[in-house]
Amino acid sequence: MFGYGRNNFTWNGTLKELESSYPAICKERHRQNMTASPHSSGGLEVLLSTLQNAGDVESTLNILNVLDELLSAGTDRRIHYMISKGGSEALLTALVNTGRSFTPNYTILLPLLHLLAKVGHRDRRIGMKAEEAGAVLLTLNLLKQNINHARRAAACLWVIQVLSSSVSTANLIGENQGLDVIYCLIPQYTTKHLHTIKAAIHAFAALLCTKDNVCSVVSKGYISGLVRLYEDWHSKDTQHVALSICYALLLCLHKVTHSTAGRQAFISQGGLRVLYQTTQTCMLSKALESLVKPSVQLMRKCLPKTPLPLTSDQSAYTFPLPGRPHTVPDIDVTPDESSDESDEEAENNKETDYDEDLETDLNQLRIRPDPDRPKDLLPQYSRLCPELLHDFQELDLSSEPEESSPASSSSSSDEDSVLLNSFPPRTSRWDRRSSSFSSDSSPSLSASHSNKERATEGHTPGAALLEAWDFHSHSSILSTSPRFRTMVRKAREEAPPGQRGDEHDDVEEGGEESHHRTTIDRLLERHGACIPHHEPKLYRTAAAKTISIPGFNILAFPDFWGHLPPPGHEPMVPRKPNIQRQKVFEDVQRFLNTDDIINQVVFDLEDESLQSPSNSLRFFSKFECGNLRKAIQVRSYEYDLILNADVNCSQHTQWFYFEVSNMVADVPYRFNVINCEKTNSQFNYGMQPVLYSVKEALEGRPHWVRSGTEVCYFRNHFCPARGRKRTTFYTLTFTITFKHNEDVCYLAYHYPYTYSALKAHLKVLQKSVDPAKVFFRQQILCSTLAGNSCPVVTITACPASRAWKDIHQLRNRPCIVLTGRVHPGESNASWVMKGTLEFLCSQDLVAQGLREAFVFKLIPMLNPDGVINGMNRCDLNSEDLNRQWSKPHPVLSPTIYHTKGFLYYLNSIGRTPQVFCDYHGHSRKKNVFLYGCSVKETLWQSGSAVDTVRLREDPGYRTIPKTLDRIAPAFSFNSCNYLVEKSRSATARVVVWREMGVLRSYTMESTFNGCDQGIYKGLQTGTRELQEMGVKFCQSLLSVTKDTLYSRRLINHIDLDHNILDHKSHNCFEDDEPPCVEEIEYSTDCPALKGTDLDSDVNSNMANF
Ligand SMILES: [Zn+2]
């Protein structure tokens, strides 16, 4: 390889071997210089000690040579061993001894500096050691003396780079003109001394690890110089021989732009434009690929922070909380004063240890805390066990309808249709259109929009040939106007009083008898899809009773009309290569090329008078679950969308649902949801948003379809509108090419499922069951803060007869309690719940068996207010309700308070649920899986010292997940876990497990995306698969029935021809997705220089001797 002197040693062993075999040689060779401590017997120590006290050049060179040989071969372990034996100190002392001389001997100094660079690079404390040895300024002086001597300068520069790993050392060098000296060593493009130039740039970059040095560089105007240097090298290096120089310059720019002032200087010096242009040329050449990533990251970092164009970050909707002044606490108004300019050293400890969150306190894991309320508050919940109170008179009286059951008394949905009919139809869109035809002066609000094409279509009003546009949300067809609402309310009040607390959805016929068939009737007849368990008119009646904060009185078409899963599967979309990069370029261009930028607000939830221009898309979101706050047309076919924050708060944006219309067909429109908050999303891993087209629905294809190309999710340059604490926003971008002109479409994060849909669905179910066989009761758990009722449903089998034996069997059935949708943005949970409900009401043999074995208590929507108002995470109290279970507030978190109270009650009467499961959606993982609770697994995982061998735990918590793994294609056993985390101690699952003693207490998480195993591998889930999961969960309950023989027979009945087992891949437990090909989060740095990179530079400097 190479050598400093004449004697080359070859060595293939370890340093330890050296210690045992070399002492003799060493001693022999350096006998005169032996000053090592008599106790030190190791060969390495001898070498190091000799080095520090070396007298003659030749012995010193020999030692350096031996050390370099030793350290060059093998792994870094040798160097670390040497460091542990004082190697750094020895080299530093030798450096100081040699370098102090008036005429330093470079024959020794050069190899010494080289070795120091290699060793120091692996010694985290090298800076401090160098300061103690007085080697820092000495090295800087050597550099100053050798600025015209490329090899020597390079050697000094590497050492300076290495020493600058310490903030105080870097500052020391900075204070002594180090930055200026080194900056002067970076010339314009040249082909000479590339090694030295590269070393200078790296040393310069290393010095920029401190705030002081960055400030100094910014104030001296070096940023402009660095930008120009980069531009110069980049443009002239046509043969790509100086790539590493360009890369190193980017590294410097990354470092200086850590500070706000640095970023400002970078922008004002045209850095953004230079990078944009150079990157465009980079992309033409594969050789330059390595420069693209750091360039793109730098551009993203430096894009000027742009506040969201909102007057306030607070939600557009506020709700006065009981017992609180009617002012919304703006918790986050303190301006962001935290500096982004902190020194780097301290910044690398952000990762919190996952295991630290595990609950290891055995008391916390085992002891049940006292109930959170007095015992005498529990009997009120007895009303929620109607199956225990019911006398089943009707069983003997056969067909007589049951008085307290609205299900059996209501014969059809006539009352709803009458109500619909009585609604004046003559204000619908096409009437207005006809009036605008007859007189062009008619100031019809939507005339500008509709006339242009319609005139040629020749449709005559009254022909009931409605176009999609007629179903635009503003249209009265989809309105539940105040008048309609009053009628519904009146009818409700007049309804015969039933059992207290029971839900009575039946609406008596209104006074206005109207027999003529309405538009909606004709339409439903003509186009209406036959959607199981969905009745549009019933939906409308339910929606009229739903209380929203803004007072929604318009229905979104898909919720009203209903939808069916599209035929065929929807595969996850493969990510287009470099899509994120491309989108970032488009975003950067907003700053560089403003010619095509429109930047016009076209929709504002808070400004209803706003008229969108005729050539822009129209947006609307004032309907249940809708939450678009603002839309800004950025370019002709590009829109920024801002989501409304959760009510009474200024954050939690992720879920979206809105209407879009006035589109031109076959043109790609880019949509950017610019205030997402999650750090990563399945949108980066094949997931698409969902789209519903009214036109398609009217043509018989009422589907929510996964749509959007160029889907990508990344951190953006927006910041909160007003001084909220350091918040980072993410952009979800996707491109939609609409199929039809002038369609009305809906876009959503996931298949919407409204509160009104639940109410309507429960009613349909109630009507569907045979009351002689299925005991189905819908009751009100409690009223929400906004005044909506939170339904609780009881489903079980009616006893076979009124014989004591049968009634007794019913009253002793174990309970299963299922809850869902505590997080309003997780609409997938509702679809799973829908599957569960339908299955439990069905005539399926297994369902029948389950009803005979259990009493099901379902609370399908724990957070109605959140769902209704288009929230993502919280309730009106701006709290995450799934963190309130420890001590729920009776007034502010009523649904949780009463669900828990009901569970306490069941506990108190000896009917503790056998299974509890809370349905959720998971935004960052694939598949469906369960979280459970296990003391043993938690202690094992945490590495706790508690002796788990003697700890007894019923392993029954694994039965259901194991069964699901066998029968549910979307389910992944490997993704389940049973660890109790401290941060989850107030969730439903943990509280029900700990406080109620429910062994099988779960959270069921369903993906928003799809599966990466089983027969659904590579497919996005639809409502069909989600509902199927709800069915499978029920079926899995057979595994916990007492009558095992019977259940085994039933399990065989479950359709197993999926052959799931063969397809299950055994993916190991992983927390999140593997990183994308492209970084989601830009790192603040270029990738760190690896030790081996420095080594090869140093080595080549020697080779060039
Ligand atoms: Zn959740």
UniProtKB/TrEMBL annotation:
<feature type="compositionally biased region" description="Basic and acidic residues">
    <location>
        <begin position="490"/>
        <end position="503"/>
    </location>
</feature>
<dbReference type="InterPro" id="IPR016024">
    <property type="entry name" value="ARM-type_fold"/>
</dbReference>
<protein>
    <recommendedName>
        <fullName>tubulin-glutamate carboxypeptidase</fullName>
        <ecNumber>3.4.17.24</ecNumber>
    </recommendedName>
</protein>
<feature type="compositionally biased region" description="Low complexity">
    <location>
        <begin position="435"/>
        <end position="449"/>
    </location>
</feature>
<dbReference type="InterPro" id="IPR000834">
    <property type="entry name" value="Peptidase_M14"/>
</dbReference>
<keyword id="KW-0378">Hydrolase</keyword>
<dbReference type="GO" id="GO:0005829">
    <property type="term" value="C:cytosol"/>
</dbReference>
<feature type="region of interest" description="Disordered">
    <location>
        <begin position="396"/>
        <end position="458"/>
    </location>
</feature>
<keyword id="KW-0121">Carboxypeptidase</keyword>
<dbReference type="Pfam" id="PF18027">
    <property type="entry name" value="Pepdidase_M14_N"/>
</dbReference>
<feature type="region of interest" description="Disordered">
    <location>
        <begin position="314"/>
        <end position="379"/>
    </location>
</feature>
<comment type="similarity">
    <text>Belongs to the peptidase M14 family.</text>
</comment>
<feature type="active site" description="Proton donor/acceptor">
    <location>
        <position position="1005"/>
    </location>
</feature>
<feature type="compositionally biased region" description="Basic and acidic residues">
    <location>
        <begin position="367"/>
        <end position="376"/>
    </location>
</feature>
<feature type="domain" description="Peptidase M14">
    <location>
        <begin position="751"/>
        <end position="1041"/>
    </location>
</feature>
<dbReference type="GO" id="GO:0008270">
    <property type="term" value="F:zinc ion binding"/>
</dbReference>
<dbReference type="Pfam" id="PF25571">
    <property type="entry name" value="TPR_CCP1_N"/>
</dbReference>
<dbReference type="InterPro" id="IPR040626">
    <property type="entry name" value="Pepdidase_M14_N"/>
</dbReference>
<dbReference type="GO" id="GO:0006508">
    <property type="term" value="P:proteolysis"/>
</dbReference>
<dbReference type="GO" id="GO:0004181">
    <property type="term" value="F:metallocarboxypeptidase activity"/>
</dbReference>
<dbReference type="InterPro" id="IPR011989">
    <property type="entry name" value="ARM-like"/>
</dbReference>
<feature type="region of interest" description="Disordered">
    <location>
        <begin position="490"/>
        <end position="516"/>
    </location>
</feature>
<dbReference type="Pfam" id="PF00246">
    <property type="entry name" value="Peptidase_M14"/>
</dbReference>
<keyword id="KW-0645">Protease</keyword>
<dbReference type="InterPro" id="IPR050821">
    <property type="entry name" value="Cytosolic_carboxypeptidase"/>
</dbReference>
<feature type="compositionally biased region" description="Acidic residues">
    <location>
        <begin position="333"/>
        <end position="346"/>
    </location>
</feature>
